[in-house]
Amino acid sequence: MAVAMKVQSLGDFPGVGLGPDDLVAGIVELSSPPEIYTRVTQILDDSSSTSADVARVIEKDPALTARLLKIINSAYYRSPSEIETVSRAITMVGSRELRNMVFATSVLEMFHGIPNDLVSMRSFWEDSIRCAVVSQVLASQHHDESEVEPIFVAGLLHEIGHLVIYHKLPEFAREALLRHMHGGIDVHVAEKEVLGFDYAAVGAALLKLWKLPPLLEQVVEFHMEPEKVPDFPLETAIVHLAKRISVLKTFEASEIVYKIPVNSPSWKSAGIREDTLVETLQLASEQYDMARSIIQ
Q1: What's the predicted TM-score (pTM) here?
Q2: Structural contact between residues 270 and 237, judged by C-beta atoms closer than 8 angstroms
Q3: Is residue 86 over pLDDT 70?
Q4: Do residues 163 and 110 make contact, with C-beta atoms less than 8 angstroms apart?
Q5: What is the Cα 208 distance to its own chain's centre?
Q6: What domains can you pick out in the chain, each with its CATH number?
Q7: At 177, which helix (H) or strand (E)?
Q8: How do residues 233-263 score in pLDDT, each as one tens digit?
Q9: Which H or E element spans position 187?
Q10: Cystine design at 251: which of 195, 226, 247, 285 (Cβ 3.0–4.6 Å)?
């Protein structure tokens, strides 16, 4: 459904009388983080667990099982024969990739039933996964593997607040989109004008409700204004840059550098060197092709 509505004056939207915490608390389906992700994480963190233990949890979710097997049997992994069991699939991916697959798929399913006429859900998740993958690859230049996973999750969830606003306050969301399209202002600025807060604040409120780590909460809340984040400046700068890259919908270094010059604050804050850019974006492109299978 196309967004069609007369742009209102500022006085017509004096605020909604609600805050980010009120919005997320009012959606029962979002009251807790994906249970299967929590369980898989607990098992993977247990040194005595086996791939069979993880498989038993995943196999209880038919949608997740189907997606995992589809990804493993994709051209990305180039398996010489078809992988038919979850336990075999698990042995082919590292724990980090497995966690990311489980989280992305379970969050996707969680929001699947939320009616929405303001956004293409497929495009929304494609953009979110693109940001997550770019965030992960950029972060790998600074962090060990174990520290990169949260940044993937932050990239995946950086715009999750939009879905909550679209669901709970569709007319206000529509007005903000109109101001963005016709007024030439950023969406988060338009949302603050209309609502008194933006999607990033709503996303952070949701992650707080889920009791996820402070790093995720802060990165999501401040990814549009990384200079304001209190505790995680590098991680927030990385997701900010990844978002800017993902909006361009390309992994071509020349085009990205043209739109986001390497001497800009975004690159400097994220600590990314120009001499590693081509290789970094190539890796991001390959990982995106694999991760995109999650929503196909």
Answers
A1: 0.82
A2: yes
A3: yes
A4: no
A5: 16
A6: 23-295 (1.10.3210.10)
A7: helix 170-183
A8: 999 999 999 999 999 999 999 999 999 998 8
A9: helix 187-195
A10: 285
